[in-house]
Amino acid sequence: MTDRQMPKWSELKPLLRPKPITVNPTERRLEKALTIADLRAIAKRRTPRSVFDYTDGAAEAEISLRRARRLFAEMELQPSILRDVSELDLGTSILGGRSELPFAFAPTGFTRMMNHEGESAVVKVAEDIGIPYALSTMGTTSIEDVAAAAPNARKWFQLYVWKDRDAGEDLVKRSAAAGYEALMLTVDVPVAGARLRDVRNGFTIPPSLTAKTVLDASLHPAWWANLLTTRPLTFASLSTWDGTVAELLDKLFDPTMTIDDLNWLRSIWDGPLIVKGIQTVEDARRVVDAGADAVVLSNHGGRQLDRAPTPLRILPDVRKAIGSDAEIYLDTGIMSGADIVAAIALGADACLVGRAYLYGLMAGGQRGVARAAEILTKEVRRTMALLGVSSVAELNPSHVRLP
């Protein structure tokens, strides 16, 4: 029989460690998020459905996006034990400069619609943590304002080629004048993908005040208050658009562009050129031969061609085909630091994350983006240590097995 006694105060006192109260509601909300999926859940609660679905959704049946995420989930990491991982270096070289982490913030359109702090919030976080940030042609903050918001950030400009070539050339020249270090040409949008969530939600830029959206406003008053009391959403040379995003893309973008047009870009841009939207080994080789300094293996987050190749699946073959002739970046489906580590091990020089930081932005503005970056960084660090590697450079195909 066990003898029992009443505990003494001196024994209880060390156990009583009340958690400090977080007064700020945004910080209190964000500190509960331990994963990108947690940030996504918060974003879904705090953002109008049409806006959340624009960010979260993909094309048609959304098969491409599900396949990308499933492959990351089903890949197997291969650890090597008894390695000294007391000191870890998460940094890597991107376009000849150091990035403190093996990922960059991808270009995303209409970012101030997700949260009124928009692109300025994202580039400030990129500056703080020492990684590149790519501003989209369809961004809702000007090239110059993004440059002013984070003067020391590594900034890239993502270009869609417009039917109006003079307008596109003007954007390129403004980027150069504002100190952007690289141009990222996106090539997988000859026409817009069928983003059915947007159609079903009647989504427009900016959101229209209909009976449906007014009802939604009652559920998300803070989002609507921020939208209506900050400067109107604008991008490039357009201020409003009455149709869907897909209709807007079809109106603006040039479906006649070919590989020969890279020469036109080279005539107006002499910095590093990244080509985004590569989905086959052959196309990777073609654009590198045409002068690309880097390629992004991407199916546009599943938002263009449904059932497109999964970037992670083709990565090893692309690396083998182009060798060290150009850098390789990868996006689509990345939801954790382990996903980033796996891509680096299979041959990527870096990853681009888009939805992951947008979930953070919707969950809590700039602090939410910082939280997303913090989550990914911790996961990269922990995964590397458990794999037995002390630097990004040590990652190699032996660390990953694809199903």
Automatic annotation (TrEMBL):
Cofactor(s) the record lists: FMN
InterPro entries: Aldolase_TIM, Alpha-hydoxy_acid_DH_FMN, FMN-dep_DH, FMN_HAD, FMN_hydac_DH_AS
Signal peptide span: none
One Pfam family in the UniProt entry: FMN_dh
FMN hydroxy acid dehydrogenase domain: residues covered: 28-403
Residues annotated for glyoxylate binding in this entry: 54, 160, 195, 300, 303
Keywords on record: Flavoprotein, FMN, Oxidoreductase
Enzyme superclass (EC): oxidoreductase
Keyword Oxidoreductase appears in the UniProt entry: yes
Domain of life: Bacteria
Molecular-function GO terms, alphabetical: FMN binding; L-lactate dehydrogenase (cytochrome) activity
EC number: 1.1.2.3
Binding-site residues for FMN, renumbered to this chain: 107-109, 136, 158, 186, 276, 298, 354-355
Active site: 300 (proton acceptor)
Family of this protein: Belongs to the FMN-dependent alpha-hydroxy acid dehydrogenase family.
Name the record gives this protein: L-lactate dehydrogenase (Cytochrome)
